[in-house]
Design goal:
With about 200 residues, the protein is an alpha+beta fold. It has a single domain (about 20-195), classed as Endonuclease, Chain A (2-Layer Sandwich), CATH 3.30.870. It is built from 7 helices and 8 strands; from the N terminus they run H-E-H-E-H-E-H-E-E-E-H-E-H-E-H. It is globular, with a radius of gyration of 18 Å. The termini are far apart. The model has no long low-confidence stretch (mean pLDDT about 75).
């Protein structure tokens, strides 16, 4: 690469350094992030805006883990506003009251248009929020760590942690990873196939 091309590349990168920021996410920041999902216009997470929702029909949320409480209300509201949401849940053990509550929460989200699949092998916990334009990701944020979007994770009962980044390569890689799991039909089942509704 010539010196001029190298210099141009460095100048382009300098203008986009904000995208390369990676921050440590604690349980307190995690609550900030959930509040950002609720009210993205007025809330920053760790000093910077994660993503705006001006064009909700081009906004996607891919999320995995266990779910309950406030996050369900937030995701249902976003889905009703035409945000495209896909959710991967671990399998549930319906002998336990907590998992029966989780199933109820999943059904409620499904009723609001959120696509839900159950995967026995996925143990990742991630949240990817991104916008697309003509099928291409134009900006987004990735949160990855050990937390779940449930009462224990959001109340501080558990000391979970992770990272948050706006790096476009990492966002795209996370979406590709999520897609790979989502499309693996022999490992992934729809909610109603795994847990048929009872009449």
């Amino acid at each position: 690469m010539s010196w001029e091309k190298s210099l141009r590349k460095l100048e382009e990168m300098r203008g986009q350094l904000w995208q390369f920021r990676v921050s440590f996410l604690t349980d307190r920041n995690f609550v900030e992030l959930v509040n950002h999902l609720r009210n993205p216009v007025d809330t920053d997470v760790m000093g910077y805006r994660v993503i705006g929702y001006r064009n909700l029909h081009t906004t996607h949320i891919d999320i995995s883990g266990y779910f309950s409480g406030g996050i369900v209300n937030i995701l249902c509201a976003k889905a009703r506003e035409q945000c495209k949401i896909r959710l991967l849940s671990p399998p549930l053990d319906l002998r336990h009251a907590q998992d029966r509550r989780n199933l109820s929460a999943l059904r409620r989200m499904q009723d609001d248009g959120i696509e839900i699949r159950i995967n026995d092998r996925n143990h990742s916990r991630l949240l990817v929020i991104y916008r697309t334009e003509e099928g291409t990701i134009i900006n987004g944020a990735l949160v990855i760590g050990s937390f779940d979007f449930n009462r224990e994770g959001l109340s501080g009962e558990r000391r979970d942690a992770g990272i948050i980044t706006l790096h476009p390569d990492l966002v795209e890689s996370a979406v590709a990873f999520f897609n790979e799991i989502w499309e693996t039909r022999y490992e992934t089942e729809t909610l109603d196939t795994k847990y048929p509704p009872t009449s």
